[in-house]
Amino acid sequence: MLLKVQDLKVSFATPKRMIPTLHRVSFDLDYGEVLGLVGESGTGKSITGKSILRLLPPNGMITGGKILFKKRDLVGLRESEMRKIRGKEISAVQQDPLSSLNPAFRIKDQMTDILTLHTDMSEKEAEEHVIQLLNQVGIKDARSVINKYPHQLSGGMCQRVMIAIAFSCSPSLVIADEPTTALDVITQALVIELMKRMQEENNTSIIFITHDISLASKICERIAVMHKGEVVEIGKTEEVLFNPKHEYTRLLINSIPKIEKEIRTIFNGVET
Amino acid sequence: MPVSSTYLLRRLLYMIISIIGVSVFGFILFRIVPGDPVLMMVSPTASLEDIEALRHQLGFDRPLYIQYVNWFRDFLSGSFGTSIRYNTDVLELVTSRLPATLELVIVSILVAFVIGVLIGVISAVKSGSWADRILTGFSFLGFSLPHFLWGIVFIVIFGAIAHLLPVSGRIDIDFEVTPITGFILIDSLVSGNLAAFKSALAHIALPAISLALSLIAILHRTLKSSMLDVLGEDYIFTDRMKGLPERKIIFERALRNALIPTITILGVQFTFLMGGSIIIEYIFGWPGMGTLLFTAVQYKDLPLLQGIVMVYALIVVLTNFLVDLTYTIINPKIELR
Asked: At how many degrees (to 10) do helices B90-125 and B194-231 cross?
């Protein structure tokens, strides 16, 4: 077992009172497994992801529960210890690729920093490794790309760079928070494919956060459905999709756009 | 640098137009304000013929546009005319005084920038803490009083009461510093005269801080708010997710983004401080352009006045240009074309 989240509780402080946001979130994740965290906006999917990295916004705090990562409880771990885990053991890919890269620094600077920090590579070696990584995520002219600024790249390219960063230290866990929501449909499919490939090559575990249950079903082995700050249902993807136990899961599945379903049946009909 | 040659050409044209505009405006303005420069020069017993003869000799009896054309012709050939009061070449007078003013303004800006940025970062990172509240209080105070009032307060406290710092001049008269750059701080260091450097530093402290206070307050506020915005950005989350140390994130990754609006302010404030230095120089007996301007106005020394105005205009125009170039370095998204 790589990760075991047990009765996780998170609250946010407002000037007047504490607002509980996560109530007893529990799930676990095996080595090399891809778990989907699915639910509508505001159910606490991202908060769960950020809690695991211990990077909640300043007014948010973990008020209870355990996050056992490789049998170590991350809750209550010192900040300096957490920093050794972040980037090296657990990393993340965010929703908007353009805003998750610093506009004032070259791609090179934003990719070598994590390598020189967590490995004993020199600046020069890190740069060579970055070029390899970029080739690996399908960027061909890597040598010119590393000298560019984020605004000179497309959204899809930036997300490839982010994925390369997230996988660069071969972490055990990558938290992908809606990594395709800001992309167009074709790029979306390419990015999903890329993440799947990187996951398989590195045997990384992924927590895939999305509001799109049909997207989750393409990449995840198991799905956890979140609703109002709780995990209401968790199980194998097929089971959750075809035999949903919770009323909310049924609603989610019914909310998959009809047109998409129809097109799929048309395409499937052509293929078979 | 992402700057096109058409941009540079166009910009140069604008600069020339602004300079000519200022020269016309200044020329007319100084001639329509009351007071006769010729009467200032002659003794009270001078005869009317003598006065008219002098007026004719100086060319003040000709139509305004002819006077201007003559002045402009000289200006193009690099001559600013002769000061009536000092009977010296205007350009020589101005260039002998300019380094003192620039030294004062640049030291003020450096002091303001270092302190303003530092307390701005502290206020942003420790937002809402006691440190933030105290700093905000101080910068509110610094902003509330005009700089010349601060100058007087400092003279009273540090000069008259505590006798800690000198309140007049650029350096103790015992020191002899050979001018190389005209910047006394640099010249004394270059010639290895440490005692002179210390004296010059002590002399510049009070006028520079008086001039810097309001800028510190402005920088503090701007940097605090832009830093707070930047620290909430996704790319800062990315850096934290990588496990980078907070110091590197704040002072390298966040600060460069947060400085963009601050640099704009610095450019505008440089010209503002050039203006503010006039009164500060007067209060602290600082031998720069400001005190020269005072004399020129007092004696209605028209060629000198016009010369000083032209130098100020040139500095303002050039500063604005340099600030725009700085943007392209600090913010790679900006391209000037």
From this structure: 50
